[in-house]
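Predict the 3D structure for this chain.
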Amino acid sequence: MKFYFLVEGRRTEKKLYRAWLGYCFPHLQEVAQAADLTTHSFFILAGMGYPSYLQRIPDALADSARYAADHLFICIDAEERTYDERKQELHTLVDNALRKHQAEGRPYTGQIHIIVADCCIETWLLGHQKLMPRQPNDEALAKFKRFYDVSRDDPERMDRHPGHPRGRADFHLEYLSHVFRHHGKSYSKERPGIATEASYFAALRDRCLSPTPGHRHLASFHVLWSTWAELGGRFDMEAPPLS
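Done. Predicted structure below.
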């Protein structure tokens, strides 16, 4: 089994996907170059953000064909677009690239999986239900919680605060940073910290698989989880309370 990943950014996503793959597919080894892909390995290419990743999708398809990757994952954020809009954009781009490669005699015969985080990977990370304190001491975090309580309501449905100067993805990132700070942790694009830990991943899995009616959230994360489960991915760790 050979996996090829094209992920949104150059920092956070590579670290998180690398960690998550290690938990679900411990028999796979990461390789530094696509040319090094062998049986039971994976390669992660940074998309360098929007719009750079749009230009990298045809290259990822060509690499996947050239080095016989069984599965190509394109993992992108919806950001300021809706989930459906971003997914349609990616499908159109992939279909065009596939036709071009086919016409040039370089068809890709593996499976392509388009994973769209709604709205960004920090939105998924806000899905750790035990991170949010019941009564935040920090006023900034309290304001975030009064606006939208991500421990109760689906983080993927959270808009930005009307008074926030930037977009929805930036609002989610700022919210997450304050949650981490409450626990004496730090979160940045460069250093996602405890978000790479197995127990954190377990908390996101539990949120998207919750059997309680109305509590099954993170639908776009569930697409990733279910896809990996269908491919034989296994992850049985319990999510302990955050200390």
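Residues 85 and 172 are 19 Å apart (CA to CA).
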